[in-house]
Structure formats: C-alpha cells, structure tokens
Amino acid sequence: MNLDILAVALVTAVATSLIGVFLVLRKLSMMTDAIAHTVLLGIVLMFLWVRDLNSPWLVFGATLSGLFTVWLIETLRRVRFVKEDAAIGMVMTMLFSVAILLLSTRLRRTHLHVETVLLGQLEFVMFERTTLPWIGSWPTSLVILSGVLVANVLFLGFFYKEYKVLSFDRTLAHVLGFSPWLLHYLFMTLISLTSVAAFNAVGAILVIAFMVGPVMSARLLTHRLPRLVALTLIVAVFNTLMGYLIAFRWDLNTAASMATMTLLSFLAILIAAPKQGLLSRLWQHHQQTHTIHMLTLITHLKHHEQDDNVAVESNPNTLYEHFNWPQRKTQKLIHRSQKHGYIEQKDAIIRVSPKGWQFYAHATRTL
Amino acid sequence: MPIKHFGVMSVFNLGFTLTVVMLGTMVLGILGGVLGTLLVLRRQALMGDALSHATLPGVMLAFMLFATRSLEVLLIGAFLSASVAYGLMLLIKRHTLLQWDAAMALMLAGFFGFGQWLLSIIQRQGTAAQAGLSRFIFGQAATMLREDVIRLTVVSAVMLIILIGLLKEFKTAVFDPDFFSSLGRSAPGIEWLLRGMTLVFIVLGIRLVGVVLISALLIAPVLTAQQWSVRFHRVLLLSAFIGGVSGLVGTYLSATRANVPTGPVIVFVLGLLFLISILVAPKEGLLRKSFEWHRLKRTLTLYAPLIHLYEQPEGTLRLEDVVRYEVQGYVLKDQDQWRLTAKGEAKVKAMKKVILDES
Amino acid sequence: MEYALVIEDLSVAYHKKPVLWDIDLNVPFGTIMGIVGPNGAGKSTLMKAVLGVVKPLTGRIRLAGDTHQAHAVAYVPQKESVDWDFPTTVYDVVMMGRYGHIGWFKRPRKSDHEKVEAALKTLSMWSLKDTQIGALSGGQQQRVFLARALVQEADVYFLDEPFQGVDAKTERVMVEVFKSLKAQGKTLIIVHHDLNTVRQYFDSVTLLNVRVFASGAVEDVFTDENIMKTYQSDAHQAFWRDERV
Q1: Where is pLDDT greater, at C205 or B311?
Q2: Within this chain, do residues A52 and A164 fall inside the same structural domain, yes or no?
Q3: Which ipTM did the prediction report?
Q4: What is the domain extent for residue B222?
Q5: Residue (of A145, A236, A190, A264) closest to A22 by Cα position
Q6: Which of A209, A242, A264 is the last residue before a domain boundary?
Q7: Which of A65, A131, A72 is nearest to A102 (CA)?
Q8: How far apart, in whole angstroms, are the C-alpha atoms of residue A125 and residue A152?
Q9: For the segment B140-180, what is each residue's pLDDT rounded down to a tens digit?
Q10: What are the residue ranges of helices labelled H in chain B?
C-alpha cells in the first residue's frame, strides 16, 4: 500500500469538498466546470513563458486564468446579453480551444500534455518530491495541497458567517456592510487555487466531482450548516478510502475510482436517505394517500350519519358505487380503516368509532 | 485515408475526403445552430456539456461487453449512458432540494470518472484501447470515413426536417409550455423530442469535435446570432448559418495545417465570430451600449436642473448651473427669476424625445 | 427638521431605460411611510438604491446622521429574493441580523443571543427556533425576517411587500411591532401595493411611478386625484412625451 498516494488523495478530498460546501450553497457548481477546464490556458501561457513544468508560476498563472474566466462570464452576463449558463459554456469552450491550439502548435514536443491536465496522474505524485526544513522529503503535490487545505480552512473559518449571509441573502450582505464583490472574488480565487492544486493529482474534470459530490450527499441528510460541513467531510473521506482500496486491490486508476465512489455513494444516499431519500419520499407519499382516503371515508360516513338512507350510503358492499371507485380499492380502504380501529361494522352498516373521531379531529386540525 | 495527405491543396482543388469531411462538419454545425437556439432559449445551454462528458462510461461498457470497436455499438452505448445521466439529473431536480446546476456538475464529473475507471479496467486486461480516450476527448474529424459522414448527414438531415416541420410547436413550447399545453398539445412530448435530439447530436458530434468542445456548437452560434437580432426566426437562421460556416472554415483550416485538431479550430472560429459580433453588432453591441449609458448619465447630470426648471418655472437654480446655462443661452433672468429661453425649451424637449425613443 | 432619510436628485437607469427619475424625498424620524405605485414603478429599485445594492445614475442618498450603514439600516426582503432551501434554522437567520454589530472574525456574544431570543419571543416564534426556515408557513417566514430586522437595531427599517401572503394573525403582530418601533422614534419605509390598506397602516405615503408624484402625510397626499395621476398607466411615458403632468 502506498501511503503517499493515500495521503495526497485524502488531502485533495478534504480541501475540495470543504470549499465545495459553499460552492454548492452559492449555486456556483457549473462555474467550477468552467474554471476546471480553463486552468489549462493559464498553465499553457505560463509554460510558454517560463518553460518549466515544475515552476510555481504555473500555479499562479492557472489561478489567474480561473479568475479571468469568472470575470469574463460575469461581464458577459452583466452587460445583459447572455444568461449565466450560456455565458459559462461560451467562455469555457473558447478559452479551452485556445489552450489546445497553443498546445498543438507551439508546444508539441514538450512534456505538457492535455491528458495530464484533464485526467491527472495520482499514481505518479510520489516521484516529484520536495525537501522541507525539519520535516524532510515529501511529495510536492502533498505539500502544495496541504497548503491549499490550510488556506481553505483558515479562510472559511474566518469568514464563515460572512459567506453564510452572502449565500443566503445577498442583499443583507450589502446592508450589513460586507462587500459582496470582494467576498465573491476572494471565494473564486480559492476555488481556482484549489482546482489548480488538485488537477495534478486527480485531473481537472474529476475535481468537479470531489467539490460537489460530498456536499450534495450531505445536503440530503441535514438541514443545519455545521452538520452539513461535518457530514460533507465524512462522506469525502469515506469515498476516498473506499476508492483507494478498490483501486489498490485491483490495480485500477485511483482518482477515477474515487470519483466513481463519489457518484455511487451519492446515488445510495439519494435512494436511502432517511427523510429526503427517494424511498422515504415514496413511503411518505403512500402514507399521506392512505390518511387522505381514510379521512374521506370518515367524512362520508359522518355526512350520512343522520341520513334516512344511512343503510344505503354506509353499506360496505355498495360504498364503492358512491365513491365511484373500483370495488377492490374500496374494500381495501374499509379493511385498513377497520384494522386501525377507526370504523365499526354492525348489520351491514359501518359507523365511525370513538378512535376514528379522535383521528378525524386530529388530522383535520393538522392538515 | 486521413486528410492530412491533402494538406497543401488549394481551396479550389480540395481532395475528395476533405470535401466529404467538410460537408459533414457543416451539416453538424447547422444542426447545432438550430438545436442550440432552442436549448439556449430554454435555459439549457450547459446540457450539452454535461451529457457529452456522461457518454464516456457507455462507450467503455459497450466495448467491454461486446468486445468490438464497431462504431454503431459504441455510439449506442454512449447514447444510453448519457440518457441515464440525464434521467438522474431530472430525478434529482424533481425529488430533492438540490439545484439543477449541482446535479449537472456531479453527473458530468461522476460519469466521466466512472468512464475513466472502466477504462483502467480495460487497460488492465491489456486490450490496448488506451489511445481511444484522448481521441474521444478531443475528437478526430480527420479519421472520419465516408460512411461516417453519410450517416452523420442522413441523421442530421432527418433531425433538421423534424425541427423545421415542427418549428412553431417548438417555439411555443420553449417560450410558454403552459400555454402550449392549454392548446391541447403535449408540451412534455415536445420537450422529450428536444432532449432526444440533443442526445443524438452530442453522440454524433463527439467524434468530430470531442467531449469538451461539443457544447460550443450548441451555444456559440446562438449567442453570436443574438447579437444581431432579437427575432426568433432570424436568430435561428443566422445561428444555423454561423454554425455551418464555422464547421466548414474550421475543418478546412485544420486540414491544411499540420497537427491542428479540428474541434478546437472550429470552436476558435466560432469564438472569433462571437467576439466580432459583440464589438460591432448594431443594436446590442458592447461598445455602443457602454457609450449610450455614459451619454445618458452625462445628459442627466448636466441637464437635470434645466429639466427641473422646465417643470417648475418657479424653481431655483444653483449658481454653477446658471453660469453654464446662461453661456449656452438656455436661460435668461427675468425679474429675479431664471426662465427658460426658447432655445432652452427646445433643448429640454429634444432630450425628452431622445430618452423616450430609446427606452 | 432632522430627517432619517434624505434623497436628492436620484436617478437610476438600467442601461438606457430610466427606472427612477429625479427623485427628491425626505423622510422624517418616527414615521411609517408607505411607498405605493403600480407595477414597474421602481419601488423595489428605490429601496435597492438606498441599500446600496443598485448604483444610481445621479443623485445623493443620505441616511440619518451619515452613520455607518451597517448600523443605520435594516431590511426585510421580498420573499422571492431568499434561498428558502438554505440549510439554516430560524434562530440562525435572526442571528444574521447581529452580524453587522459582531464584526469580522468574531463570534456572537451573550448579549447577541439575548437579543435574538427577545426578538423571537416578541414575534411568538421562539418555539420554532430550531426549525429549518423552508419548513415554515409564509406568515412565519415573514415574522422571522422581521425578527432579524429588529435585532439589527437600526434607525431606519426597509420592508419590501411585508404583508404579501401572510395570515391575518401575523399581519396584526406585524402592525403592533411597527407601532412600537415608531414609538421608539424609528423610521419605517414600507413598499406596498394594496391601496385599500394604506390609510390603515401608514401615517405618511409616497406615490411613486418612476418619479415621485406626491409625498407627505397620508391625509394630505393620499387623494383620489394624486392616485389617479400616479396610476395612469402611461404616466411616466407622458412625462417623457412632454405633457406636463
């Protein structure tokens, strides 16, 4: 087992998913799609200048190009030609195509490959090492990513309440005197920096999955922000460990394996989450239908209680005609209501029981 | 035969293969322009991007299951997996509080990661399919065969005929689905038709321009066309035209230069057209708009007091305004009260007229 | 006379289209002012301009004594402008109102918690303090936002259509709160669209349709003639077309 790879994977997952919480809450998910693709242009341009694949200038250039992307998208939108999603698609593809053209014409014989940027090479991270004072030699990616992680933690720790307000109610941020513009660009700088730091290990496209996946899963489990942050980190670490183990056991692509786990764990939570999961929703819907049907039955019986033709209206065998329902469905309803003890049958007439009246009173009050 | 062999030929003496490929990309560009107009107006511009990335696992699974490189099988796999991703996106949108864009981002990257994971399984089995991935990501028009182009053209033509035949239905359903339903038509039906055609378009187009850039064919022509007109039919026609021309020119440029992939060149041409349009288009141009905003601001700052005086003849003027207006001959002093001259009144009326006409 | 809010020569335009034109408005302390006008009259834009969200084309806006905005103004948003699915509780939303006082980097103190509790109790929302805001009814949501505005302890309160879609009980509670704020010398500026309730809720009113048509005490200004002028569907068009209105 290679602990270097696991460490890089874990740090990547925690750094990306943490910033992802506010990314998703601020509804900027597709903005990262754009940033993740256009960092390539920044890297290419900086590489043309410094001609060194390991230069820190590449990270700087890529971060800048991420910010440039955000600015372009917002400019297109602000001057009101273009809806946000169209602007994202436009800017992303244009800058990406320029990057590819530069790569294929000016940089053909270098070691800078598009595949590396887009797909990443987690398996190779340990070959590139940096020696730090006191703590010795570590993979360069791990050093950079740890720095980014610390930056993310500090930043979100300091500005937690400001970003909460900004995500929830932008106008309030204005009124309280936080500069939304400044906060926004600071945030996008972090997003950009995190994408850049992570692409080396997991590739620009999978970064998106690590940013949005865990928080989306956590969103289905809680309505509280602090718990959301904690659950997001738990899901992210779980995905990483599982993905790593699978990849290690069968010798597969580690980053892709982590992304697959991100998708699968989300789908599992989507189906099985206690309150917001699909199964639970189906069950709630089912229960509500039953309640409504039983209420309808009691209302009908109540309506005809003092009636002269109560024998006709409240006869369990002919009730389906009055409801204009299939006979089986009506029979089932009567059975269910009897099982709950809401109705009693005497001489082919059904009547509402005391328990039924309680249920009726309670349900009509809360409905 | 790859096109590069025809690299040095002049425009008037194009090789047969190049002509065929150019025809194919042109048809794809036209279809993208038309389909994209509907998608962008429906606020679904990024769907193309999400779905194209989501085709990867389908291609890989089809390859693993049927152990074939037959394009038909792989394309069907691509179609199915993008459909599954789309279905999941709809499910998330309808039944959870999660946002559409987040769902799109996760399906895009999650499916792509899953596809990459499957690829690593294939590679482990040593079937040497690796080269396929980068071709899949960036597209390779140059390797298109005549049969590919014929299939592409036929399918695109069929879709174009459907689109044009049902144009007013599409238009109504896109602008106002409720109204469309009230006419007794099926808005969901039209919606599904649009989704289906988008999927087919993406699956066909990936081979030419690749996963990342296919969405540009759906977005860029429309946005460019929208700079020139606001009328639906004009935007549609112009967008189809721009899409077609970019396909044609892009393919030609990439074929006549060594080592330049087709997709990025087409998208680059589209980007240039967009940039030019944004700067110079008559009505909506960026330069013009910024110019007009500043002119209005200047007018209001300079002449608001004059308009005040016009409205309330008993009003007062600040000294700095008086000096300016008197020099320009807009006001005169009449028994301790500044009054508008005939010229001043004309100026106020002219300003009002300008602002009314433009707002 | 000391004014809570003074607006001079304010114009706002979205691109070439003037939305507010040449607004002059003085709002004294201790008033409840309604801003009334037809759809598209620029009521919300006026509020956004005062809050600093929209950049004005021309003009000046001065708030009470030019104090720092964070403490001078509180606002209650229109319902559509807030993300109701946001993972946060009633208590948390009200605490956001204190953030302007708490300052960067710091955490809420005991006094902040006490103020939040008091405001929630005033609006009888204390029992729902741990509820996710999306799960509340329309009236309850409005009360939460009013509580948030209360803890901001501002001089001027802006409310955008606060009575829209609330139940009768909430409406009574809100009117009570408004009256007690007024008694403390606070100023309330309320965007409103229901002409029938203007006399009941407000003591002064501004009739707005791109321009200010009338502004002052309700009994002086809220006349049939002024209302007619403001609501003439093309009143502001007529202005530009050079008919003196």
Answers
A1: C205
A2: yes
A3: 0.86
A4: 3-284
A5: A190
A6: A209
A7: A65
A8: 22
A9: 666 667 777 888 888 888 998 888 888 877 877 777 676 67
A10: 16-41, 47-53, 56-66, 71-95, 100-124, 131-138, 146-165, 167-175, 177-182, 187-209, 214-226, 232-255, 262-280, 286-311, 319-328, 342-358
Are B232 and B251 in a shared domain? yes
**CA B130/CA C236 separation, integer angstroms:** 67
Residue B345: HSE in the Cβ half-sphere, 13 Å Cα cutoff? 9
Distance of alpha carbon B205 from alpha carbon B31, whole angstroms? 10
Of A93, A105, A258, the CB nearest to B267: A93
Q: What percent of chain C has pLDDT over 90?
A: 8
A171 closest CB neighbour out of C75, C88, C99: C75
Query: Which positions in chain B touch A27 (Cβ < 8 Å)?
Result: 99, 101-102
Cα separations in angstroms, A149 against A18, A137, B218, B252 = 9, 19, 37, 47
| Interface size, chain A vs chain C, as Cβ–Cβ contacts under 8 Å | 74
Nearest CA in chain B to C60: B301
Q: What DSSP string describes B53-75?
A: HTTHHHHHHHHHHH----HHHHH
Contact A278, B95 (CB under 8 A): yes
Chain A contacts in chain C segment 203-242 (CB below 8 A) = none
Overall number of domains in chain B: 2
CA–CA separation, A208 and A29 (whole Å):
8
In a shared domain, residues A192 and A292:
no
Instruction: Choose one of A209, A241, A259: the last residue of a domain.
Output: A209
Domains identified in chain A, total number: 2
In-domain check, residue A111: yes
A96 touches chain B (CB under 8 A): yes
- For chain B, list residues whose CB is within 8 angstroms of any CB belonging to chain C: 97, 289, 292-293, 296-297, 300-301, 304, 307-308, 311, 349, 352-353, 355-356, 358-359
Residues B183 and B202 in one domain: yes
Nearest by CB: A25 against C68, C86, C96:
C86
Q: Quick one: chain A helix, strand, coil %, rounded to 5?
A: 75, 5, 20
User: Within this chain, do residues B334 and B233 fall inside the same structural domain, yes or no?
Assistant: no
Number of cross-chain residue pairs from B and C with Cβ atoms under 8 Å apart: 46
Q: Return mean pLDDT, chain B.
A: 80
* Structure-token match 């969901």, residue found: B188
Max Cα distance, chain C (Å): 60
* Domain annotation covers residue A129: yes
Nearest to C163 by CA among C130, C125, C200: C200
A135 touches chain B (CB under 8 A): no
Instruction: Give the closest-approach CA distance of C17 to chain B in angstroms.
Output: 5
Out of C51, C81, C88, the one facing A225 most closely (by C-beta) is: C88
Task: Quickly state the pLDDT bin for B284 (edges 50, 70, 90).
Answer: low
Q: Are strands C58-63 and C32-36 parallel, antiparallel or unpaired?
A: unpaired
The span from the CA of C75 to the CA of C47, in Å, is: 9
The residue in chain C having the minimum alpha-carbon distance to the alpha carbon of residue B350 is C242
Q: Are residues A175 and A283 in the same domain?
A: no
> Dihedral of CA A336/A339/A344/A347: which sign?
positive
Between A204-219 and A29-50, two packed helices, what is the crossing angle to 10 degrees? 160
Whether residue B260 is found in the same domain as residue B345: no
The domain spanning residue A359 has which CATH number?
A: 1.10.10.10
B220 touches B271 (CB < 8 A): yes
Tell which wins on pLDDT, A134 or C56.
Answer: C56
User: Domain holding B141: CATH number?
Assistant: 1.10.3470.10
For residue A309, give its domain range: 279-366
